[in-house]
Amino acid sequence: MSLLIKNGRVITATDDYQADILVQGEKIVAIGKDLPAHDAEIIDASGLLVMPGGIDPHVHLDMPFMGTFSSDTHETGTRAALHGGTTTVIDFVLQKQGHSLREALDEWNSRASGTAVGDYSFHMAVTDFNPDTKAEIKTMVEQEGITSFKTFMAYKGALMIDDRQMTDLMQEVRQQGGMVTVHATNGDVIDYLVAKHVAEGKTSPLYHYLSQPEVTEAEASARFTDLANYTGCPGYIVHMTCEGALNAVRNATRRNQKVYVETCIQYLLLDASKYDQGFESAKWVMSPPLREAKDQETLWAGINQGLVNIVATDHCPFMWEQKLMGKDNFAKIPNGHPAIENRMELLFSEGVNKNRISLNKYVEVACTNPAKIFGMFPKKGTIAIGSDADIILFDPKEQHTISAATHHMNVDYSAYEGWPLTGRVKTVLLRGKVAVDKGECLVPKGYGQFIKRNKVSGKI
Ligand code: URP
Ligand code: ZN
Ligand code: ZN
Fold this sequence. Notes:
By secondary structure, the protein is an alpha/beta fold. The chain has two domains: 2-51 and 382-441, Roll (Urease, subunit C, domain 1), CATH 2.30.40.10; 53-373, Alpha-Beta Barrel (TIM Barrel), CATH 3.20.20.140. The chain is 31% helix and 24% strand. The strands form three sheets. Strands 1, 2, 3, 4, 5, 16, 17, 18 and 19 form a nine-stranded mixed beta sheet that branches.
């Protein structure tokens, strides 16, 4: 089966040109002017941007967390991602303390395999690093194609590891050719502030925000960066929100250290005024919390400075009823917000259309860098001969509005309700198949494939 995408404007992280793209089977096999159709089915992309499928390297699907499960499964979450132009996601396997990495991976495989609609991979979250876990790192990298190991410097008593475990893990991961990624906030200080606020009867969502001040993130980001430098381990900071944390990474560039940085769409677009709405604010209870206007400016600038490499979502949706678990105590509100479907269109509308980033930068941070940093390039993340035909056709002019009434995520509110967008995903190809067209998902449950990833390959 062949497809010929004709008359589109092809955008990659580096190029911008008019061309046709020929797809055979799962791959792109030719790119050129006026390619002959032969027996290929023609897709007319006149007036549309033709870009690589988005890659969201930070999503939590069907994840047990804070006494409940995130409400999107691998089926509903990857389908919603496809509707929004994201063809591949990286989800998090969570090791249970006292249990092996293998047990956790088996559990996640049983949930995702045969159910995912879009392509997916896994990070392995190490929550209990000990001699047994250490022995499993090599197998994860060599046999399972899981080359990134997530750590939490917060969520004390649940997911957090200490600096001793962090250092030991970094040394092992470096040896095996992987990368350590981190939720970088100071768990002890947050724990203290949460307990203090609750003891004082300050239990509304506002106190979630006030329990995680910027210093908790800046301090942990600097500590993580120093430990990565000391051990020589490639490091990546997830969901960075603020100026103080980015300055820690900026400082490290002076010794020619590269720590990769991810921010998320919400930290670029939303701010802490969302915590002034009483319990309604629970919709935006996430960790780290939303910050200030000055932090948004720093993050946008950081993208253009090459310090912020990726814009992800940290998609971790909960139904309103689940959020109500914390109606009397912010510390019991499940942390996270839904965005997997909205990232590509929001970033285009607010980033490219408002001249904050270029079109090439857009593709770089939403598609290409996630593939490069996480060992999937050039199979994923670009438009090139031999790459997977993961392609989106995007109308840069169409106007529409975000609403829970029309989104495909399994969550009963939108964190961006009523947000006006200019730019819309029209058609999505995943490995050569038309996966979404005219608002319909055309590939079945189970079409999504697990993507084994390569070892980490130096600086990008
Ligand atoms: O609030 C968040 N971010 N929930 C998901 C878990 C995490 O810390 O990434
Ligand atoms: Zn986190
Ligand atoms: Zn997360």
